[in-house]
Amino acid sequence: MKRIYKKWSLVLFSALTLTACNDDFDALNTDPDRPEEVPSAYLLTSAQKGLMDGTLDEWNNGRFGMLWSQYWAQQEYTAESRFKLRDGSINNMWSEYYAGLDGSTVKLGGVMDLVKIMEQENAKPEEGRNENMIAAARILKVWMMQNITDIWGNVPYSEAFQAESGISNPVYDSQELIYADLLKELKESFAQLDPAGKLIDGDVVYSGDPSSWQKFANALRLRVAIRMADVDEATARAEIQDVLQSGVLFSGVSDEASFPYMDSQPNNNPLSQYLGGRSDFSLSETMVNEMLPKMDPRLPIYANPAVDSDQFVGRPYGQTDDEAAQMAKTSVSQPGPGWVGALPGVYISYSEQQFILAEAVLRGFIAGDALTYMKSGVRSSMEFWGVDVSEADVYVDAVSLNQSTWKNDLGYEKWVALYGQGQQGWIEWRRLDFGILILPVGGIHEGALSDDMIPVRVTYPTNEQTLNRINWTNAIQDQSSSNGWTGDRLDGKVWWDIN
Most CB atoms within 10 A, among 125, 184, 194, 408? Predict the structure, then answer.
């Protein structure tokens, strides 16, 4: 890859050693039964890495996001590509995102770590408090909570993380109310950040720079706003206009919010690490058949040529186990050279920001040239992946945009640019309905869906049915009346998904 990754600061090397073992945390505890407060800087580092690791790993990205967005197809054990997620993986994704737990294993970095940062810093005297760190924790919490509600719909929010206050069974808040609070949090945290104030200790995303976090907050605010544009156009318009008036935006790929992984374990990209040891996934026919005729120069980075033919060949999406076994892995393209250990984990990219601004123009929210913004989104995606400038020029010059089919035109290019961010690719397909994705060629897995359709949410964890049953039941009933659900199913649309 030709991309030059962000340099890691000294704090990154010292702080990330926490992920290798728990000995460092033990050393902080003078009494194992009465652990002292873990420094906020350590919690921030662990949250930044832990939340990104959990978003990008084999299960939550590989066997869910990258499959349901149809970037990849499964070569064996194909249930997930036929829309049947394992109960255990859903339980683990929920607990990992909320609490930093993976089954019975305690991992670093859930939203709970971010809440702890806010509590600890707010409890300090004003002169010892790091307002910039509080703001960074709030922004990162918004990033994760939006992902959570976009995956499941109504989820615990206002009463979450309050077990110490006696709330062990939190109510589920509506996505509409959650989105309103996400926007409020981003506006307030942007104002809370002081570029001339304290550096953010433990921050490995921006090396402690508050002004960069302001850009992150505004880019994320654009994402939240555009996602609700179909259901609440007035709010989406006002939020996007307000962000533009601030003038604080990503100005290039170097500004975007990403976690800077390293080449080697334990701090390399988790899915890259997994791909180095197994061959469960290939490029899907869906993706290859779209990119190949367009001569997209990202394809040789996203995929390797098939060993047998030295050509780019996608695997039909959603084969049965038997069908997949009959097609040699060497006959199809495997994930390509872009999957290096140091591939950054993207929270939100400059490319995505530019696509959002293009859409805002198309919706009449802001002035400007939509095609220019869209081409910028494509070009910056190519820059991220290390495409040669001359090759990028040829492709970008051919990019077109038709006002009557803009959701297809923009949706396709945004989908390709979101490669690697499987959950976001699937979420944007749900929102823009730009076609491309297909039903599994082997049929939908028994017990996954009763109708022939692509899932538009994930069912709630079985642990919630057992441990928080009353609130789980109420959440389903609430969405049955507001969103037309007929139970906790994959075909129940979330609040913003009205098309």
Answer: 408
